[in-house]
Design brief:
alpha/beta, Metallo-beta-lactamase, Chain A, 29% helix
Length: 242
């Protein structure tokens, strides 16, 4: 699997909101600025067939209206499937109606965006030999919030989404070859993992590769200085291959 970090930042960071593109076809989260970034880096938006939204905080789904408009203006024919927590379509419609009142139905008739609600412990086959496993994580008062394990060609890629350190995070790391984990700040809290959690995970699973995302600039710098062997600290636009 080709793993491209479109954005690796938390709210307030210089880096873009956390978003990852897999094999140029599957997008994980679509926060503010992601669509412009994809276009600036010469990605063809109509190649993206599926998008999974981890939870309904704006820095993870706010660019969906702009994806819809781009598809509307370019008359993109092939559908895109957007998977997310319960209420995702209604939430996006409400956002669209605030930004562009009265245009949602007209735009989506052309944009051809299909919304599918997720449930924990689902397995979803999105293309031949690619399966997305849905796991519920703990993100403060935001319920539900999901992590994923993506399987393809006997490889497994894990995503925590936004989450504190919980049993599901351990499950994701155990079952995945590479796990992309929330590391919002130095200290952890009820909403997010911090550097202390990531260090613990790298020590508990020394044979697993951990990549971090959703970072403030300060924690990024400190984590890089520690030079942890099995820890990858990507910048926006970095690519790794699984």
């Amino acid at each position: 699997m080709k793993i491209e970090f479109i954005g690796t930042g938390a709210i307030g960071a210089v880096s873009l909101s956390a978003s990852t593109l897999i094999d140029d076809k599957l997008l994980i989260d679509m926060g503010n600025g992601i669509i412009k970034k994809l276009k600036l880096t010469n990605h063809k938006l109509d190649n993206i067939e599926n998008c999974f939204i981890t939870h309904l905080h704006g820095d993870h789904f706010a660019d969906i209206p702009f994806l819809m408009l781009d598809r509307f203006f370019h008359k993109t024919e092939n559908p895109i499937h957007i998977y997310g927590p319960k209420g995702i379509e209604e939430t996006v419609k409400q956002l669209f109606d605030i930004l562009f009142p009265g245009d949602y139905e007209r735009v989506n008739e052309i944009a051809n965006v299909k919304f599918i609600e997720l449930e924990s412990k689902q397995q979803i086959e999105i293309e031949k030999k690619m399966i997305v496993n849905i796991l519920e994580v703990e993100h403060g008062k935001c319920n539900p919030a999901y992590g994923f394990i993506i399987e393809k060609d006997n490889q497994k890629l894990g995503f925590s989404g936004d989450s504190t350190y919980c049993e599901t995070i351990s499950e994701i790391v155990k079952k995945s070859d590479v796990s992309i984990l929330d590391m919002s700040a130095v200290d952890s809290n009820k909403n997010h993992m911090g550097l202390e959690d990531i260090i613990k995970i790298t020590e508990n699973y020394p044979n697993k590769k951990i990549a971090t995302t959703h970072m403030q600039e300060g924690v990024r710098k400190i984590a890089k200085e520690k030079k942890i062997k099995n820890l990858i600290i990507p910048n926006d636009e970095d690519i790794i291959n699984l």
